[in-house]
Design a protein that fits this description.
The chain is mainly alpha-helical. 67% of the residues lie in helices and 0% in strands. The chain has a domain of 37 residues. The longest helix is centred in the middle third of the chain and has 31 residues. The model has no long low-confidence stretch (mean pLDDT 89). Keywords: Membrane, Transmembrane, Transmembrane helix.
Length: 60
């Protein structure tokens, strides 16, 4: 037997990686859903609001 440590992933490390992957995936899914909500679902409303924006000249 040699004293070389095993370099494979242990069960605990694999669980941590899976948890991190799930968290990252859920974060991306949440951001994608929010982007869809703002751009696709409410895009016309925000376009109308943006059309009303402008610079007014104030005469003194």
């Amino acid at each position: 037997m040699s004293n070389i440590p095993e370099t494979g992933r242990t069960q605990r490390v694999q669980i941590r990686l899976i948890v991190i992957q799930v968290l990252v995936f859920s974060l991306l899914l949440t951001l994608g859903g929010r982007l869809w909500y703002l751009q696709i679902r409410n895009g016309d409303e925000y376009t109308a609001e943006a059309a009303g924006n402008g610079v007014q000249q104030v005469v003194q």
